[in-house]
Amino acid sequence: VHLEGQLRDALAHDGLALHYQPVVGEDGSVLTAEALVRWPHPDRGLLPPDVFLPVAEQGDLLRELDRWVLRTALREAVTWPEPVAVAVNLAGLVPGDPEFVDTVATAIAESGIPWNRVVLELVETALVDLPSRVRQSMAELVDRGVRFAVDDFGTGYSSLARLKDLPAQIIKVDRRFVSGVDHDSSDFAVAKAVVDMARAMGRKCVAEGVETEAQFQVLRDIGVDAYQGWLFSRPVPPKEFRAALALGP
Ligand code: G
Ligand code: G
Ligand code: MN
Ligand code: NA
Asked: Taking every annotated instance into account, which residue ranges of this chain make up the domain EAL (predicted)?
């Protein structure tokens, strides 16, 4: 309860921080940066989301946290050079929420960022069983240029065949398959199947958690479109990210 109260306070007073991790193309150029929330806690140091997202969930603060991240990330990203996009994870503010479209549209409009530089990351479970009304609303955002990404693909319950029903332009292959892609034949098979299927359905594929040159090579051969992981960069504070952008690939 103590931590929950402090989190509530932090949310109300801009007491959280965002770090950014680049998503790069084959040539190393930065295409997107994923915003990853941290909490610079007065007594406990920089807390990772695994520690406080459960607290947020318990305290019914996830939706508010997502709104804070969305607003903050868009405001920071509008200062980046074209055409670098920003990706925001949403867990509490999801398409089924009646205020979803309005909230997103307002945040984009207020920030002044071009719509096509906004990516919204959702887990599989938030994207299945969407009533047609909700799909329609999401389509309005997509028509204006927003892209949706399915995060951690392969870890949820949907089968590959359901990929075609997911209203998402980007598929993020979970790092559990990426980690073994260069030496484990079943990880390789899953990664390849996901990428082949995604491509057949006109989606872009991002590999998450790329840590080694060997993984990168194999993923490139499979035909992944973009890459994210420690091989390229850890998540870094906004200043450091901007400095890296200025230096180029
Ligand atoms: O940054 P890190 O790799 O420690 O993130 C751990 C988990 O927290 C990941 O599952 C990630 O999706 C989630 N996460 C990180 N930042 C955010 C955020 O800003 N909003 C939400 N809803 N989840 C986040
Ligand atoms: O669940 P989601 O994909 O949103 O969260 C990304 C998480 O993966 C963050 O916690 C981030 O710090 C972590 N991450 C990013 N790159 C790597 C990597 O190369 N290796 C590992 N082990 N974790 C990574
Ligand atoms: Mn993510
Ligand atoms: Na992930």
From this structure: 1-249
Task: Please say whether the beta carbons of 115 and 101 come within 8 A.
Answer: no
- For residue 226, the CA-to-ligand 1 centroid distance in Å is 19
Short-list 66, 61, 59, CA closest to 94:
66
Number of domains present in the structure of the chain? 1
Substitution candidate for ligand 2 out of 175, 205, 216, 227 with most atoms within 8 A of CB: 175
In the chain, % of residues over pLDDT 70: 98
Instruction: Output the six-digit token pair for 9.
Output: 């306070």
CA gap 55, 7 in Å, rounded: 8
CB 182 within 8 A of CB 214: yes
Inter-residue contact 107 to 71 (CB < 8 Å):
yes
**pLDDT tens column, 160-191:** 878 888 899 999 999 999 999 999 999 999 99
Domain range enclosing 59: 2-247
Closest listed ligand to the CA of 90: 1
| CATH number of the domain enclosing 204 | 3.20.20.450
CA-proximal residue: ligand 1, atom 19 (nearest) = 37
